[in-house]
Amino acid sequence: MRLENKTAAITGAGSGIGKASAIRFAAEGATVILLEVNEAAGRETEAEIIKEGGRAEFLALDVADWGQVSRAFNIIEKKYGGLDILYNNASVFWGTKDAAIADLDVGVMEQILKINLFGTMYCAKAAVPLIKQRGGGAIINTSSSCGVIGIPNCDAYSASKGAVISLTRAMAVEYGPYGIRTNCIAPAAIHTPMIYESDLNKPTFSEEEFLTSKTPLRRWGLPGDVANIALFLASDEGSYVNGAIIMADGGITVT
Questions:
Q1: Which residues are catalytic?
Q2: Calpha distance 11→166 (Å, rounded)
Q3: Which single residue of 78, 113, 155, 227 could bond 21 by disulfide (Cβ 3.0 to 4.6 Å)?
């Protein structure tokens, strides 16, 4: 019960890594606030956790809307009296819309930044005062392999994820003295619904080649692989980890 008596807010908790992390956190004793734009998915996660004896509450939230974020965290403050953990997991990867910068639609660029970067900033801005009320805690942000290496035809996504890394480091320095640890997970090749927006859905994509020559571990990552890292960063086991960027990519970024 590594998160016993802790309150954790997870964005994008309705599917993929967010859902796996919500279930994992609840199993470790946390009360989990499920912040999700898809109401059906959020309520499904909520029901699964409660069925297993855990504590969870769904709150509808579009992280790209500051008004919604502010209201959601006001509800958290009033109901729970503060917050111990924020996991900024929600993001989008629009492989069919993203492109090289000269070909990129300005509106697509703005929307991806609004969700991936501003959504992270909005939630962190709203959560920091609540975590301070608890005397400290943990913030986990989400980047990507695209945030540390160059990948063609996803310039908006890459820009947003590189910015999240810089924001993480700034927050680690800014709020470390308040006992708030800010770290970042940078996943790649995680088999979630979002991966079908990548090269996986293109006729030229060879899964066998990808898993045997591109990925050193020779397998897809699973949502639970990332959830385990998030649990470590959220728990006291990660109490001296601050400002870290942890790659969860099977070794892709070192090949």
A1: 157
A2: 20
A3: 227
CATH class of domain segment(s) 7-249: alpha beta
Side chain identity at 223, as an amino acid letter?
A: P
Q: Are 189 and 247 in contact (CB under 8 A)?
A: no
What pLDDT shows up at residue 151?
Answer: 85
pLDDT digits (tens, 9 = 90+) for 110-139: 999 999 999 999 999 999 999 999 999 999
For the purposes of burial, counting CB atoms within 10 Å of the CB of 43, is it exposed (0-12), middle (13-18) or buried (19 or more)? middle
Q: How far apart are CA 5 and CA 49, in angstroms?
A: 16
Number of other residues whose CB lies within 10 A of the CB of residue 253: 15
Model pTM score: 0.95
Contacts of 43 (CB under 8 A, 6+ apart): 58
**Cross-strand pairs, 57:** 33
CA distance linking residue 172 with residue 184, whole number of Å: 10
Mean pLDDT across the stretch 169-196? 92
Quote the radius of gyration of the chain (alpha carbons, Å).
Answer: 17
CA distance 224 to 229: 9
With cut-offs at 50, 70 and 90, classify the pLDDT of residue 103: very high
Distance CA(74)–CA(129), nearest Å, equals 11
The bridge status of strand 55-60 relative to strand 85-87 is unpaired
pLDDT greater than 70 at residue 196: no
What are the residues whose beta carbons fall under 8 Å from the beta carbon of 220, sequence distance 6 or more?
Answer: 189, 190, 191, 211
CB within 8 Å of 202: residues ≥ 6 apart: none
Find out whether 140 and 88 touch, Cβ atoms under 8 Å: yes
Q: Contact, 238 vs 183, CB < 8 A? A: yes
